[in-house]
Amino acid sequence: MKPISWRVQLGFIAVGYGAVLAIAGGLLLIRYLQEASHPADVAGAGGMYAAGDLFLGTFIVCLFMIPSFFLVRLMAGFEGLYTRYSQLMLGMSVSAPVCLMLIYWGENRIPQNLALVGLYRLLWSPFIIVGLGASWLVARFSRARTLIAYSLLIETLTLGVAVALIFVHRR
Question: CA of 52: how far to CAs of 55, 67, 123, in Å?
């Protein structure tokens, strides 16, 4: 059996992203129409609607992880490209401890918007850990695998320290 060329695989991945984008757009439109048609319910149970929005956002992120896994798996066959990708992931992982330091030691010293960006970065950390784990599993080259392992270590330790600070730093 003849293997599928990388161009055809890239086309399938693009179709996958398009399908996920269409599904996400449809789900967000349905959610918006529901909230627009029942404003009293939204005002009366705002927390429940906010939780629904959070679950919907999490579901959409998980949907986008499916074609992303196949894209990373395809990139793993090209050493130069995958090494650049792993360097990018290492740079992104270094942003986690920076955000944690800004939030923890920057109380009343940094703008609230910057602290909010750091908080969102840390909240997406579990998804980044899953992506890094998948990237590490498909890595074929030692340099890229090492960089991804360092990224995974930084991200996991930062998340662990953030959780520990929640329990230690109670006032």
Answer: 5, 24, 17
- 10 Å Cβ neighbour count for 149? 16
pTM of this prediction?
0.82
Element (H, E) at 54: helix 46-75
What does the pLDDT look like over 6-24, one tens digit per residue? 899 999 999 999 999 999 9
Phi/psi zone of residue 110: left (φ > 0), alpha (ψ -120 to 50 degrees), beta? beta
Query: How far is 131 from 16, CA to CA, in rounded Å?
Result: 17
Quick one: tokens of 1? 């059996």
DSSP state of 91: H
Distance CA 76, CA 142 (A): 11
> In which element (H, E) is residue 87 found?
helix 79-105
